[in-house]
Amino acid sequence: MSRKKAYMGRMEGEPPVKKVLFWCERCNVPLVGPKCGCGAEGKKVPLLQPYDVRPALKGDMALIRKLVHEQFGSVPLPRVMLLNKTGGVDRADLVIAHGGRFGWLTFDPVNRRFNFDIAPEALPYVLGHASKGIVDLESAAAAGEVRGRIGGKKFALTAPAPEGTVIVKYRNRYGTGTVKEGQIRVKEVVTVETRRPANPDWSLVIRRNHIHLKNLEKEAVRTIRRHMNDRPTANVSFSGGKDSTAVLHLARKAGVEKAFFIDTGIEIQETIDFVASRPGVEIIEKTGDFWQAVEKAGPPGKDHRWCCKLLKLQPLKLYLAGVGPCVTVQGNRWYESWNRASLEETSQNPANPLQLNVSPIRSWRALEVFLYLWWQKVEINPLYEMGLERIGCFLCPAMLESEYELLRETHPDMVARWDAFLEDWAGKKGLPGEYCRWGLWRWRALPPKMREVCRERGIALNDDYSVRASEEKVMRPAEVTQRETASAPAVKEEGFPVARIRGDFPILGDIVYLDSAATSFSPEAVVGAMVEFEHRYRANVGRGVHRLTQIASQRYWHAHEKVAAFIGGRNGVTVFTKNTTEAINMVAQGLPWKPGDRVVTTILEHHSNYLPWTHLKMQGVEVVVIPVRPDYSLDLDALREAVEAAPTRLVAVTHASNVLGTVTPVEEIARICHGHGSLLLVDGAQSVPHMPVDVARIGCDFFCFSGHKMLGPTGTGVLWMKEPILEPTMLGGGMVETVTTDGFTPAAGYQQYEAGTPNIAGGIGLGAAVGYLEKIGMEEVRQYEEELTSRLIDGLKGIEGVHVYAAEDPAARIGVVSFTIDGLHPHEVARRLDEDTEIMVRSGHHCCMPLMERLGLPDGTVRASLALYTTRQEVDLLVASVAEICRGI
Ligand code: PMP
Fold first, then answer.
1. How far is the CA of 572 from the centre of ligand 1 (A)?
2. Residue 638 φ/ψ, nearest 5 degrees
3. Catalytic residues
4. Residue with the nearest Cα to atom 12 of ligand 1?
5. pLDDT, tens digit, for every residue of 112-125?
6. Closest Cα partner for 449 from 86, 846, 848, 840?
7. Are 703 and 790 in contact (CB under 8 A)?
8. Which of 276, 492, 716, 772 could pair with 707 as two cysteines, CB 3.0-4.6 Å apart?
C-alpha cells in the first residue's frame, strides 16, 4: 500500500492519520489496508474523529446486545463489530458492522444510562428478527396526518410507543425515528431488503489481514532497532494497557529486554496482577501518596493533572536517574487524541532530558493493536474484555463516566472510597451533589458540552466555568477538621511511620519541601490546639478570675511545663519568646556587662548568635571567634585555649549548624566553661527539632530555640535558663508581683520575662507540638533523619561537579546539607529545582555571612534541610534533579 493512499482525505499540513476503514464485502471483515487477504479490494468506510476504530470486545458486545434486545427483541448480532469513539458528553461510539454504520452507543452521565440508537443502515440485518420497537405509522399516527414526504417530519402518535430510537414502518418501507413525548420524528423511510450475510469471527479477520499485520510488525521492529542504540540502554515504558503490551512484545522481538511499570498506588488490581505476570518488568514504587495529596490539591481534572506529576513524572525521574541516558520505547499513538496526532518516530522527553522516546506504533489504530496482539496470542489486560476502553488509574479524570459506572459494579470498594472523598470534598466546598454524581469533578473549568449540560439543568457555574459553590453549604472549619481526622486512611506501618506522619500535615501533598531548617510545617494537632483556643476559651492570661482566663492561663502555663520537660529543663525557668533571636538577645541584654568582659563564640554561628555579641564590643566587651576544622567540626582545642587564656564571661555556641549541619560537642564545652567560671549559652534552634535534648545533661546555663522550626506555630521560641539571673529587658503588665510609685517587685518564674500579653495561641500550639514529637519519640526521629541525611549526602557526593559541605561522621551532623554546583549560582540551582521539580530548598548565605567568608563561598550554598516528614523518595528526587541540572551545564 502506498503511504499516500493510506492517508486518504488528508488536508495540507494535517498529520497523516487514516480517516477511513476498509471492508471486504466478500468476506464481511474489516481490513487494516485496502486489500483483503482473499484478493478482493476493500470498500471505504468513513470514520469519525479521532478515527481510532477498535473491535467491540466481550463487555462491549454484551452491553450492545442487552440494549438491542431490550429495544427490538432477540436480534442476533454479528460476531465482528467495531467501535469508533467520537466526541460527546461522555461515551459516544459509532458502532460499525457489515461494513457500515450499525448504530450509536452513548452514555448519559446525568441519568447514568447507556443508550443504543440504531442506524438506518442496520435495518437490512435487523428487520427479519425484530419483534418489538417497531412503530407502524399507518396504525400509530393520527389518521390523515401521514401525507406526502415522511422523512424529517414529526407526527403525533395515537398509540403508545417506547421512547427513544425505534424502527419506523410505513406500508412496505422502513426507516428509523425518535419517539419523544407522544410524538415521533421520522428520519427517512425506504425500501429495505433484508440480508443474511456471512458471520465470520475475529480469527478470519486476523487471517485476512495477515500481510498487513506482518508489515506493521516488521516496520515497528525496524523502528525500534533503528533507535535502540541511540543511548547506552533501552527499555520499554509499560503501563499494563494494550498499546504498551504490543510495544513490549515488539521490543522484545527487536532485542530490548528491559521494561518498567510505574505503580501510582491507585491502579486497578487486575492491572497490578497483569503487570506482575509479565516477566522482566521492573515495578517502580510510587513516590507520592495520592490520598494525602488529594486532600489538599482536590480532585485532579483533565485540565488539572497534578496527579501525573506526583505519581508518574517524579518516580520516572528517580528511575531514570538510576538508569542514566536511555531510549524508551513507548506505545503512544496518533489516534489517542488530537494532541498526539503529530507525534514523531522519536521525541525528546521534555521533562526528562535523559530519555529519548521511540514510538513504533504511533501510526496504529486500536484495531491494529488488538489484531496484532490476537494474532501473536499475547495476553491482554482482562479489564478490556470487562468493558473498559482505557486502562490507567481507576479515578483518572480522563476516564469516561461510563467506565466509572462499570467499575462501580466490578470494583465497588475502590469506587466507594473515591465517592466518599468526592462527597466529602463537595461538602467542604459547598458544591452541589451533581459535582460528584455527574462526574463534573473531572474538570476544573468545564468544557462547552458540560457547560451546556449544566445550563440545561440549572447547575450554576462561575465565570471561569467551574461549578459554583453555595455559600451556606460550606462547612465551618471545626467540621472540616473533624472530618479530615476521621477520613485519614490507615497506613501499614513498617519502621518509622513517615506515611502516617505525613497524613497529619495538611500542607504536605504534591510539593517537596526541603527547607524545614528555615521553618517547619505544623501538624493538624498544633493547628487544632490553636483553633480550639480561638473557638472555645480565648482570653488573656495571668489576669482576672473569670473562667475563660483561668482555662487560658492554665493551658498556657501547662505549655511551658511541657516544653521544659521536653528539653529536660524542669529545674530551670522556661520563657516563651517570639523566636531564637529574641531569646539570645534577652541574654545579651539581660546580663550586666562591663569593659574587659569576654565572650567566646564560633564561626559556625547564625547572625542571631553572633550580632548580639559583637554588638557588645561597644560596651568594651572582647569577642573571640573560634574557627572550624577542615572536616567542618568545631575546633574544640581552640575553644578550650580561648577560655583558658583569659576569664570569659560567656561562651555562646550553636548546638547544630544551620549551614553545615555540624553538631557541636556541647557537653564537653560545658565542662570547659564550668571549669573556668564561664556561662554557657547554647543555640538549639537546629537541634531541638531533630534529636533528643537534655539541658541538664548538657550542663548549659541558657538554651535558646525556635518553636516554629520544631512543628510549632510561627512567632514562637524559647529561652530556657538554669537560674533566673537575667534582668528583664521588657517592663510592663504581667511581669510584676507588686508595683509602687517607686518601683516594682518582679513576678517569680517565667512571668517576669514575658511582659505584655504574650502569643497565647502560639504558646499553646507549641505545647501541642512538643506533645506530638514526644509521641513519635525524638530518638526515633533522630535515627530516621540520620539515615536520610546519609542517603542525601552520599547521593550528592556521587554527582560530578557537586561539592558537599558536611561532616563525615553521621553522629556529628543533622539533616541540614549544604552543597554547591560548579559554575552555577546557588540561587539559580534553587530556582531550577523549584521550577523543574517543585523542590523547595534554601540558597544564599543562610544568615551566616562570616562562615561563608571563611569557607570562601561568597555566593553561599544551596541548603536542603530535612524533617521527620521527609521521605526517602524526596531525598532521591533531589539527588536525581541535581544530577540532571549538572548534566545540563
Ligand atoms: N540560630 C540558628 C542555628 C538558626 O538556624 C536560626 C534560624 N535559621 C536562628 C538561630 C534564628 O532563629 P529565628 O529566626 O527563629 O529567631
1. 22
2. -60, -40
3. 847
4. 580
5. 999 999 999 999 99
6. 86
7. no
8. 716
